[in-house]
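re: ur question from earlier - yeah i can do the single chain one, its not a big deal. heres the input i used so u can compare w yours
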Amino acid sequence: MYQPPHFRDDTRTAQHGLIRAYPLGLLVTGGPEGLMANPVPFLLDEAGSQGTLRAHLARANPQWQALAEAAECLVVFQGPQGYVTPAWYASKREHGRVVPTWNYATVHVWGRPRVIEDTGWLRRQIADLTNLREAPRAAPWAVDDAPAPFVAAQLRAIVGIEIPITRIEGKWKMSQNRPEADRAGVIAGMRTEGETILAAMVADRSGS
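and the output i got, formated as tokens:
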């Protein structure tokens, strides 16, 4: 992706942190019939040099067949994002040479996918994904709460995907290219409009 140096972040801590916080990735593949994209919840295994993504797809979804033949796929993880009005900039009042923009955080991951149909792997995948999302709840639901024949049927209806990461890029476009007074205006404006997470990220990236 387009990467001006002041927006680029190559640190694994930031990249993996965004994936864990916003795990619904857009899985993109190309094949004879063109591009295909599906939103898929991923798990990140940090073992290895750059980590591995794990997920599963419905067997009825034709993308798993494209993945089986793909030399490479792309997964796009989108973090907080929001519109930035020039009205927040101090420089608007000084000279008026300002335009609207958009702030966002995103991580792009590339790798060669592997399709997995092993029942044990699939069982572990859905258990791990479920446990991770259910753990904070007062009464967490577990896969074993469902009847065993029902779970077995569900497992037959999915296929697993494992993507060892070969390349990863992070981009945090958080007004780093604006003067300090403009960044302060963006932070204040976002807080006023309830965009507290995005405001905090702008503040963090500007050292405020």
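The mean pLDDT is 95. not sure if urs matches, ping me
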